[in-house]
Amino acid sequence: METNIVSRSRGWLDRAKTLIEAGEVVAFHTETVYGLGANALSDEAVLKIFALKGRPADNPLIVHVHKDYDISPLIDGEPPYAAALRRAFLPGPLTMVYPSTGKVSKYVSCGLDTLAIRVPSSPTAQAFLKAADLPIAAPSANLSKHVSPVTARHVFDDFNGKIPLILDGGACSSGIESTVLDCTGDIPQILREGLVTREMIVEAVGECGVYHAKSGERPKSPGMAYKHYSPRCKTAYFPREELEKAVACYREEEACGAPCFLCESEVCALLQGFRTLDLGRTPEEMARRLYALLRKGEQQATLLIGIEPREKGGVMAGVMNRMKRAFGVEHGTKES
Ligand code: TXA
Ligand code: MG
Fold first, then answer.
1. Local structure of 161: helix, strand or coil
2. Average pLDDT of the chain to the nearest whole number
3. What is the pLDDT of residues 177-197, one digit of tens each?
4. CA atoms within 13 A on the CB side of 46
5. Which residues form the pocket of ligand 1, taking CB atoms under 6 Å from any ligand atom?
6. What would the pLDDT profile of 277-324 be if each residue is shown by its tens digit?
7. How far does residue 290's CA lie from ligand 2's centre (Å)?
8. What architecture is domain 234-327?
9. How many CA atoms lie within 13 A of 27 on its CB side?
10. What percent of the chain has pLDDT over 70?
11. Coil vs helix vs strand at 271
12. Position 336 confidence tier, pLDDT thresholds 50, 70, 90
């Protein structure tokens, strides 16, 4: 199969719609990362996503809808805080988890009694979802475990010859995946941190918890149990205070391979004469650059050495979560 990358041009959405209606998988730009979309109402189409990604069968998918799509048939009402959060943050990088009503393929939720819904803001995603006029199940458009894609080229690198179409909307402006928020309880609870932060949710509705799975328990957001975002090279990770140890690690690798640091601008400046990939200065910049640099790192280095950024709160919570998992510092309990 030939894989075409198309950007806004005559007939591009008709092509995407025809493919979706035929049960095919279409990759598309969103403001967070690229998604691998298929008709959420079709068992066959949804199963195709799992097969293409090599995704574990117990890791549920997010359903994406256009901003004017009527989600009421997909959910069974919602608490007032959820309605307020939808008004405040959608379209945007926030995924809401509701009790499911069984209206989409059962393979979307993988046996959970909840359904995750997201309304992306990117013009490409909005145009695609409007044209498709169906709920679109979509995980990030990377092979399972690999780094999430933030350009059409990244998607192509993982799926060339396996999917017919990639809707190119340029580089993703947010750069890490949406915040996943459990809206089934009395107060909202973050299952996966992202660009919509706990602080922003508290400001909007007064309260917000952050879920941490206890060891041995099936996590509420099953994806968080898997090794993820991993570059295909050796990795090491050091806190900022251990920069000397990190340099020793670099020197040791240099004898036989090609080490490279991945760190914030301030640390790059201290590492003159070493190979570095610069994450940037602000949390938003680090979010936007992280995945592209991990993919660049795996191509250019035999060992990628991450240095933990200094800042921790707000958007950095999401960046740190992805960084630690990419570097294998926190990858839950499962290996696949
Ligand atoms: O920004 C994003 O969310 C991107 C773009 C493409 O929209 N999508 C994305 O999908 O990151 P994926 O499949 O890579 O990650 C979805 C996460 C997983 O951790 C999954 O376990 C969780 O959302 N999830 C999906 N449905 C859920 C549900 N019903 N309850 C709890 N967690 C759910
Ligand atoms: Mg993913």
1. coil
2. 94
3. 999 999 999 999 999 999 999
4. 23
5. 30, 32-33, 35, 59-62, 95, 97, 109, 112, 114-116, 118, 120, 138-140, 177-178, 180, 191-192, 220-224
6. 999 999 999 999 999 999 999 999 999 999 999 988 899 999 999 999
7. 14
8. 3-Layer(aba) Sandwich (3.40)
9. 35
10. 96
11. coil
12. very low
For residue 329, the model assigns a pLDDT of: 86
The pTM is what?
0.95
How many helices (H) and strands (E) in the chain? 11, 15
Phi, psi of 254 (to 5 degrees): -55, -30
DSSP symbols for 215-251: TTSPPSSGGGGB--SB-SSEEEEE-GGGHHHHHHHHH
The closest of 27, 31, 1 to 12, measured between CA atoms, is 27
Query: Is residue 56 reached through a cis peptide bond, with omega within 30 degrees of 0 on the bond before it?
Result: no
Alpha-carbon gap, residue 191 to 198, rounded angstroms: 11
Q: Which CATH number is 4-210's, of 3.90.870.10, 1.10.10.10, 3.40.50.2020, 3.40.47.10?
A: 3.90.870.10
pLDDT at 225: 62
